[in-house]
Description:
This protein is mainly beta. It has two helices and 31 strands. The chain has a domain at 1-145 and 354-396. The protein has helices at residues 328-332, 372-395, and strands at 5-6, 11-14, 20-22, 30-36, 41-50, 56-62, 74-81, 89-93, 104-110, 116-122, 125-133, 141-145, 155-159, 165-170, 175-182, 190-196, 204-209, 215-219, 222-227, 231-234, 242-248, 254-264, 267-278, 281-284, 289-298, 304-310, 315-321, 324-327, 338-342, 348-353, 359-368. It has a five-stranded antiparallel beta sheet, with no helix packed on it. A hairpin with a 5-residue loop joins strand 21 (242-248) and strand 22 (254-264). It is globular and about 55 Å long. The model is unreliable at 1-27 and 374-396 (pLDDT under 50).
Amino acid sequence: MKKLRNMAVLAIGVSAVPIIFAAQAASAGMAYTVTNLGGLGGTITEAFGINSQGEVVGDSMTAINSTSGTGGYDQPFLWKPTTPNGTTGTMYSLDPNYSSSSYIGLGQAINGQGQVVGVEGTSAGYQTFLWTPSQNNGVTGSLVNLNVPVGAGTWVYGMNNSGQVVGATGSASSSEAFLWQPDVANGSTGSTQNLGFLPGGTSSWAGGINDNGQVVGGSNNTAFIWTASAGMQPLTTPTGDGSAGDQINKAGEVAGDLVTSNTVGGATTYTYHAAVWSSAGIQELPSLGGQSSGAMAINNNGEVVGWGQTSNGNTDIFVYENGVMTDLNTLTGYTLGGVYGINDSGQIIADYTDASNHRTAYLLTPVTTPEPAALSIMVLALGATMLLKKRRLRRA
């Protein structure tokens, strides 16, 4: 019987950046409100998971006490919007008593009920945890150890709305994909199942799981999909290339990347290409002008976010939807270096690390702006309304 630990919370309120950025040479009408998620007082905040209501999880460093020199601890956090999918909210530490400067604690994924999975520990070994709110999508709850074997290669990557968790367990050099299955849906007790390897392999990891229980990841440098009925099967990958699957949506579409290598003079370089697997086959996504790119996440609408090199050598982040690739750095005017998730409302979590290694987490919330034709109709309608009012006033 696992011991429950009741969590107190540390809350810090933050506000959205009150600027809406219109698209330039991107999808017509696309714009975002950019929210700085704030932090717990330190210099680093990272966001790794977002759910359908716009709740965000990650890690944030606490402030260092100038007198005692204590502080600077990485704690797992939950950022809850003031209203679902809103642009303002409050950050809560899920484990405010977690206080070791040599440790890291972070929330990696959050499901629709507000359950959070993450890790706490050091590079020598990470403990996997599950935090369950006292009521759905609440801000107080209990944290339990998933009892996945602790190791340098142990990590969690994803969770679905039933509370199933996937990740990898093992050493730094060799890990194995796992599935943690709760005894009851969204329960806090369960069991771990190792998922094995592709034929001839000795290492694997699981990156995502959908609500149908389909798992994706990588083994033998090849993307796989795992189901309870068929086990681990490779996703079609061009001969001689590597691949990896990062996330899967309810339709079974997988976001990830293809890898090609080139050896010159004994030195080998690798190039990554953002890709999506679907029933239609592999689709390699357009680039941002540079060589390498990667797809990090996909939502149930088939919208993909990832990173890509530009023609000037920078690494920007992108959103791909309706056949259009949009550079979010160019669109928003922000320098964004990492992107980790997108929910079904199109909200995106990203971050930026400056030259001093200060890291800021952002939430990008799409704003619907009228198309030119629709805007003309609105102007005409407004003009007609004003004319009608004038006529009524004259009659009066």
